[in-house]
Amino acid sequence: MKQDNYMSFSIVAGFFLGLVISVVKFDAPELIILGTTICTVILYLIATCCASFYMMFLDYSQTKLNKEKLDSTLNYYRNEFDKREKEVLSVRQYLKHNINTLNEDNETNNAKTK
Predict the structure, then answer these.
(1) Count of domains in the chain?
(2) Which of 45, 62, 105, 106 has the smallest number of CB atoms closer than 10 Å to its CB?
(3) Which of 20, 39, 63 is where one domain is finished?
(4) Could you tell me the pTM of the whole model?
């Protein structure tokens, strides 16, 4: 996730958190606005510091995408998914066949008893 998203989230979270705390604590509208603003600024500064430290300690040489490894992993999982899907289909067909056989047997038994 990009750092911009964290910054935006911190601003929104700070606003609503400040609004809730200010409404609970203060009665005057000016104090509610001031408390909301202060809480929003504080959470914004905390998020800015965290994003700055993250960028400072991030090693860009390790963040490159290994396309071959990703493609092989995705192909493996796709093949496994296909195998499991075939297994599920065969189980469904087996169950459907058995249910049809049981229904036919029940109808035959019901016809004989009447």
Answers:
(1) 2
(2) 62
(3) 63
(4) 0.50
Integer distance in angstroms from the first to the last C-alpha of the chain?
A: 71
The predicted-structure confidence for 69-111, as pLDDT tens digits, reads as follows 989 999 999 999 999 999 999 999 999 988 888 888 777 777 7
Q: Are 55 and 33 in contact (CB under 8 A)?
A: no
CA dihedral in degrees (50, 53, 59, 62; nearest 10)?
Answer: -20
Give yes or no for residue 35 having a pLDDT over 70: yes
- Spatial neighbors of 6 by CB under 8 A, at least 6 apart, are 47, 50, 51
For residue 75, what are the domain limits?
65-114
Residue 95, phi then psi, degrees to nearest 5: -65, -40
Q: How far apart are CA 24 and CA 38, in angstroms?
A: 15
